[in-house]
Design goal:
Helices cover 18% and strands 40% of the residues. The protein has 1 helix and 6 strands. It has a 3-stranded antiparallel β-sheet with strand order 1-6-3. It is elongated. It starts with 5 loop residues before the first helix and ends with a strand.
Length: 104
Amino acid sequence: MTKMNTNCTLCLIGVVIVSLISSINGASLECITAGVDGDLATNYATCPIGYTVTSCSCGMACGSYSIQTVFGGLTRCYCHIGCPGGNPIDWTSARCCKVAENGE
């Protein structure tokens, strides 16, 4: 089960507000999913330049995560290690959004 932390709840509230304001001003919210699974899986998923983390999801029932700002202002989901049974995280994903001008 993935748990949402307070920072992420505030992110989602911010996304809703930005989405409403943007739709009035002729912009839209553009979202993508970032992450890696399988043999290449790590305990973090980083959004591309221009996007901001709005939610996170962690594999192997590792529901504890942080939203972090890293080098260059990028944001990422960091799933805390400590899965049940000591299993490694098999996937981590981030939902990444940005405000896009219509026609972009």
